[in-house]
Amino acid sequence: MHKKSFYALDICIKMRYTSSRSMENKLNDDFEEENKMKKLFALMLALAMMLTAAAASAESLKVGLNAEFAPFEYVDDDGKITGFDVELITAIAEKMGMEVEIENMYFDGLLGALTSKMVDCLCTGMTITEERKASVDFADPYFTATQAVVVLKDNDTIHSIDDLKGKKAAVQDGTTGHFMAQDDLGCDVSDTVYKAATDAALDVVNGRADCMIIDDAVAQNLVKKYDTLTILEGMDMPVEEYGIAVNKDSAELLTKINEALAAVKEDGTYDALIAKYFN
């Protein structure tokens, strides 16, 4: 073979070898890149599955309340149920690793819903009383209250507890204010019992009732809403305590709620909620 032809053949072979090696290297690089992408995708998929499983495994805490009792629980302008009790039980549930599921219903049906296991607990401005303790258990008290007497600002007939006897009092059905007006204060509640506190307040505003008996924090909220109303001072009502209610066979849940409530008070969450809703 001619020497120049030999050199040309050698160069051609080298070029083909080099080209082949380059293509092989590129294929290997592409293969490694594809493997990396597959591994990354598999990792992301596994992480997503873990997060989904964790969310799905979060146990729900069904909470019964009556969203007609501002500022403890109410429906805001966006249609969301919120308030002191709602934020408190949500914080308690978080400490327990649970998610809150709200069941809104009339106040007078709450105890029945709890004892029939429709809900796990009640957090709804419910006063701890001996009558209620006969059917349910209460966690440690979380709020101290008293009853208030709400009247029109131009009221001139009610000045003391004794003056309430025989007066027509508007009340919210099933509340301690209802029972106190009816059984202890001698008020007439024959046709002034309402499912919502605001409806009872409107009875006083419109002159259908002489007064309203309701928890003091709720009364404070109502007199801000209706500027013709005021709260009578010096009525010397008994002190009450609110508690979260659970069924009598829910001792484990009761312990967890008490522990979580203590933690919420310890870490400052409780004080922040008090400042937000009552200061």
Oligomer: single chain
Order of helices and strands: HEEEEHEHEHEEEHEHEHEEEHH
Rg over CA atoms, rounded to whole Å, is 34 Å
Q: What characterizes the major β-sheet?
A: 6 strands, mixed
Uncertain spans, ≥5 residues at pLDDT below 50? Answer: 52-56
> What is the distance, rounded to the nearest whole angstrom, between the alpha carbons of the first and last residues?
105 Å
Shape: elongated
Q: Let me know the number of strands.
A: 14
Could you report the average pLDDT, rounded to the nearest whole number? 88
- Report strand %: 15-25%
* Secondary structure category: alpha/beta
Measured as a percent range, the helix fraction is: 40-55%
* Total of helices: 9
Summarize the structure.
This protein has helices spanning 3-57, 84-95, 110-115, 130-133, 176-184, 197-205, 216-225, 251-266, 269-278, and strands at 59-65, 68-69, 73-75, 81-82, 98-104, 121-122, 137-138, 143-152, 169-172, 193-194, 211-215, 229-231, 239-242, 245-246.
Can you give a write-up of this model?
The protein is of the alpha/beta class and 279 residues long. The protein has helices at 3-57, 84-95, 110-115, 130-133, 176-184, 197-205, 216-225, 251-266, 269-278; strands at residues 59-65, 68-69, 73-75, 81-82, 98-104, 121-122, 137-138, 143-152, 169-172, 193-194, 211-215, 229-231, 239-242, 245-246. The chain is built from 9 helices and 14 strands. The strands form 3 sheets. Strands 8, 9, 10, 11, 12 and 13 form a 6-stranded mixed β-sheet that branches. The chain has a 5-stranded mixed β-sheet with strand order 5-1-6-14-7. Strands 2-3-4 form a 3-stranded antiparallel β-sheet. The chain is elongated.
